[in-house]
Every structure is written in C-alpha cells, then in structure tokens.
Amino acid sequence: MAYLTLEKLRKAYGKHVVIPEIDLELEAGEFVCLVGPSGSGKSTLLRMIAGLESISGGRVTVAGADITGTDPSDRDMAMVFQSYALYPHMTVRDNMSFALRMRNEDKALIQERVAEAVEMLDLHGLEDRKPSALSGGQRQRVAMGRCIVRKPKLFLFDEPLSNLDAKLRTATRHQIRRLHDQLGATSIFVTHDQVEAMTMADRIALLDHGEVMQIGTPQELYLNPKNRFTAGFLGSPEMNFFSGTAEMAENGLHVRASDSLFLPASDARLKRLSDRLVPGQTVEVGVRPEHFVIADAPGPDTLSLPVEGQEWLGHEAFVFGRIGKQEVGVRVASGAAADDTLPRTGSAVPLTVLEDTWHVFDPETGETLSL
Amino acid sequence: MSATTAQRRNRIWRYGSLLPAALLLIVLTIYPVFNLVGLSLSDVEWIDGRADTSFTGLDNFEQLFQHEPVYWAGVRNTIVFAVCAVTAQMIFGFAMALAARRASGFGRVALTTIFLMPIVIPPIVIGAMWRLLLGRDFGAVNTLLGYVGLGPVDFLGNPDVALASVIMVDIWHWTPFVFLLMLTGLESLDDEVFEAARFDVKTNWQELRYVTIPLMIPTILITAGLRIVLTFKVFDEVYLLTAGGPGTATEVINFSIYRTFFAQDRVGVGSAMSLLTLVAVAVLIVAVNLVIRARRKAKEIAE
C-alpha cells in the first residue's frame, strides 16, 4: 500500500483544464521530484496535495487517510516556499516554533525540537534574528527548519532553490537530500531544473500540460525515455533529433533524409524494431550528444557535421553545428577535449553513433518504438 | 572645471526646485501661525471698518482658561469624539478590509464599491441626509424603531444621545477611509506568508492575532494617527447636524473657535483658542511620529 496516493486527480479553473487526470503513488521514505516546463501543472499539483488549491476531482490519501477536502493545517504536511515565506515580524526561533505553539505543544518539547533543527541546519547564533537580517541561504534553511520541527508526514518543496546563487544551490541540493535521508522523510520536490531533479530524486515524475509523461528513476528516464518529450526534456545539451525514413540494414538502421544517418544496433534490438517498423516508415530518431563518436575518417556510415561553434567546459567539451535546419551538438571524447585538439569552426567532423544508444520515436504520437 | 559647473548647476536645480513649495509653505502656513500668535496677544476692535489692534499680553489666555466653559466642554467632547470615533473606525475599517480581501472577483468589486460610497458624498449632503434620517418626528430611523415598538428617540435634540449620534455619523462617514488604507496595507503583504500560515495556524483567530495584525502594525499606526488628527478638525458634520447643541452637548473645539471668531467677533480669544488647539495637535503628531520612529529603530536593532 502506497504512502501517498493521488487517484484521478483533476484541476480545472472553469473551462480551463490544468490537470486532466493524474494518478500517482509514493512510497514512504521516497524523494520524488515533479519536473516539467512552466505551465506543466507541477506547482498546481503540489499545491493540491498541500491543500492550498482546491481539488476539482479525484482523491488524495496519505497513509490510508483520505485528506481530499481538509485544510492545510490538518494535513500534517509542511512546505518550503520559493520565497521562503518566513514571518518577517518573528525571530528565527519564533518562526520555527510557530506551528507547534499554535497547537499548544509542550514548551519543553518545542524547545527541544527547535534546538534539534538549529543543530541540523547549522543555524547557531541566529536564533534571535529576524529574517530580514539573514542571507538568502540562511532564510532558506530557516524555512526548512520550520518544516523539520513539525515532523510532518510529508515534506513539500516548491522550487526552494531558485532564489539561491548557483554555488549555494549545489550545496543546498546535497543538504536537502541528506536531511531527507537523516529524517527518513517522504518528500515531494517541485522544480523546473532537470539537474536538481536528476541529482536529488529517487524517482522523477515528468509533467507536461498536466499529464505525467513518464515516472521512474532518473536513470530510467534518461536512458530509456518512453517518449520524445521525456527524451528532449532531460539532458543538457539536448538530445539531437533527426526525422527521415527508416530502412533496416544487416547490422543497424538507416534513417534517410537529405543526409543519411546510420544507427548501429545489436541483433536483439534490431529484431524488436523490425517487428514494429514498416519499411520506409517516417520516424524521428534521437541521439544524445555523448553517444556520437568522432570517426577518424569519413566513410559510408559516417555523418558529416560542419562545426559552427565549441563549448569548452573543462571536464568535457561540445561542438555544435547544423545539418539541414537541425541544430546538432556532439560531446567530444575526453581525450580530445584539450583545447588544441578540439575540432575547429569551419571544419567538418565525421560522426558515427554508438551501438544501441539511440532512440526511435513515432513522429505522430511521440511514443518510443525502440524500447 | 566642468565637474564643478555641473555640481553647481545641480545644486541650483536642487534648491530651485524646492523654492515654490517653500514659498507656499511660508505664505500659507508659517506666516499665518505668526499672525495667529500676534492676534492671540492682542485685543482687536472694529472701528469704522478698520481693525484697531492693541497689545494686551496674556489677557486672552486668562479669559480662555478662566471664563470660557463652552470651549472646555468642546475640548472634552472632541476628545471623547476622537477616541470613540477613531476606535470604531479602525475596528470596522479593518474588519471590512479583511472581508473585501477574502472576497474574490465580482464580490470584491461590489464590496469595495459599497464600502467606499460614504467617502464620495459631499459633507453637506451627509449632514442633510442624516438630519432627515435621524429627525425626531419624520426621520426614517425613528419610523423603523416605531415598527418594533421603540422610540421615538430625539437623536439630535436630546443632550444625552446627541454626541453619540454625531459620532455615529462620523464613523459612518470615515470608516471607508480607514477601510481603503487597510485594504491597501493588506494587499501589500506577501501572499506566500499567508499560505505558509495556512499550514501553521489552527484557527482564523490565530492567523489574525499572530500574523495579520503584527504585519499590519505600521499601517494601523499611521492610519490611526491620521484619523485622530483629522478628527480634531471635525466641523461640518457638527455644524450641519446639531450646530453644537443642544446646550453644549455636541460642542467641539472647532465650533467654539468658529463662533468666537466669526459670530462673536472676539478675534483675540478666538486666536488664543486656535493656538492652543494647534499646539495640542502638533504635540499629538510629534508623539505619533516618535512612536513610529521608535518602533523602526527597535526593528533595526533587532536586525
């Protein structure tokens, strides 16, 4: 029995449907990220779970109890907001203890819980400060402290890292994940940042237009995307897409458009594909930048990419160019990533694709044909 | 050097732009105050249409403190008026602002429009309207009371209820002003803080007591201060409803000054009354300012 279940959850503002129908199950102790582009309904979904947004249809249950219509204060959840939403007139201590004080908890217990949170979040010496006298990172920690002291059934995070600078964001990412494990908490984390989702989540639920496109571990979503949307959303630089007509060959797949792309495949994969593909069918194929290999010399199975620019990042490097109208990014193998061996702008590099790493999608439905 | 020329031009502009406002202040405020001080120390007689002014020292103040019971009745009434009216206006205005903020869409527009109605009605109309409503024999209020077997109450003619009636009309008139400032204050607060509060508090009262009111304190202080000072200037409502009567039941400071100065032509005593009131209000404003500043300072220290 799942810890949190969403059954046929629906949200509509009048005729405008934000979330048509979502089913989702969370196990206790899981860290789940809701990811998606803006307007995907991820924040709305979180706010429905929190009780801040009314539910147009369906059910939410936590630990077996139906909480669909209850008030946020009765749901035993705690939330970290994007702007942290600390009470500006209260000290750090009062901010953290507020919910417990409002529930007339024992004073000694409150003190103990606050002390615990201060310890965990390294907020020593800041207990009597007001939020306006804290830095962004400290405020963010106080907002987490406010949740921790309540020992809630569910932690909700609404893009809590988006107001932090890049360096602090990385550190806070680790801290949140560590706290989650330490507390044995169950968390839902909303973000539009795929890196946050990939690094923190046990499972990612990728949303688009109020629908779950795919849910699974970061590895599942990255390596075996079920559809073109998932494939394109995760990964940076983005996966490269080519459309053309598919033709089976002996040891791979030819995709022919203005240029021909050869996708080498194992026998098993080729067999599965041949069951699904009609010869000459139009398909969309996706290849991640790191799944291209720069060949030594042009050959019949290589794709020629005129180089238009480079990105040198230290531990890796990418070259970019265009084939037809399609922007193509390729990761340069780490040995060739030294600045002087990077392919120069204006030159052309011959590319081959690694066996079985590529994806084939139905251009109509966007569903994968290669899994 | 071009830098110094620019600096000088800058300075000329800075002071030059202040000049019109400064001139207005001197002509319309500072000069009259000095003039008032002069008049309050003089006896003014009108002879052949000309003012004959003679210096009499503190005679006018002696007269004011010893022999003007009507003025002191006015002082008492004005204080009662200010305390009662402002307290009620603050409570009602705040409650209405909370209601309007909770309402959504059409309800909010409707509520705001209705709540703001009294503030756009000219005082003279308000006076006439309430005189008609509160009249002893034909007033709508007494007619309604009659239906339930009460009254008639002589709202404006009975010395025991006249002041309460005038205060009631003032509350009706000025609550919208408080409502408007409070609503603006509430809307400037961070919505996410209130969303956070929805997780933390168990009752609406807790939210009001521990979140909304503390966050609204600056707005509350400024609004209350403004209302108190403005209440000391009350004149039109009293003039139109009761003209200070019956007896001294609704006498207010401004009415005494008006009568002494214009109706009785006692310019010296009238000036002394004005000056005393001016000083009292000034002290009040300074006090409110000090409280606000002390709070701000305490906040800075806490940070």
TrEMBL record, chain A:
Keyword terms: ATP-binding, Nucleotide-binding, Transport
Domain ABC transporter: 4-234
Source organism superkingdom: Bacteria
Single GO biological process annotation from the record: carbohydrate transport
Gene Ontology terms: cellular component: ATP-binding cassette (ABC) transporter complex, substrate-binding subunit-containing
GO MF entries: ABC-type transporter activity; ATP binding; ATP hydrolysis activity
Gene3D superfamilies: 2.40.50.100, Nucleic acid-binding proteins, P-loop containing nucleotide triphosphate hydrolases
A Pfam cross-reference name: OB_MalK
Keyword ATP-binding attributed: yes
InterPro entries to which the protein is assigned, alphabetical: AAA+_ATPase, ABC_transporter-like_ATP-bd, ABC_transporter-like_CS, ABC_transpr_MalK-like, ABC_transpr_MalK/UgpC-like, Mo/tungstate-bd_C_term_dom, NA-bd_OB-fold, OB_MalK-like
Family stated for the protein in its record: Belongs to the ABC transporter superfamily.
Protein name: Sn-glycerol-3-phosphate ABC transporter ATP-binding protein UgpC
Natural source organism: Psychromarinibacter sediminicola
Native organism taxonomy: Bacteria, Pseudomonadati, Pseudomonadota, Alphaproteobacteria, Rhodobacterales
Gene: ugpC
UniProtKB/TrEMBL annotation, chain B:
GO terms of biological process kind: transmembrane transport
GO CC term, one of those recorded: plasma membrane
Membrane topology: Multi-pass membrane protein
Domain ABC transmembrane type-1, chain residue ranges per copy: 75-288
Bilayer-spanning residue ranges: 12-34, 79-99, 111-133, 171-189, 210-230, 272-292
Tagged with keyword NADP: no
Keywords (A to Z) from UniProt: Cell membrane, Membrane, Transmembrane, Transmembrane helix, Transport
Pfam families: BPD_transp_1
Record's subcellular location: Cell membrane
PROSITE patterns: ABC_TM1 (PS50928)
Family: Belongs to the binding-protein-dependent transport system permease family.
The protein's name in its UniProt record: Sugar ABC transporter permease
Organism: Psychromarinibacter sediminicola
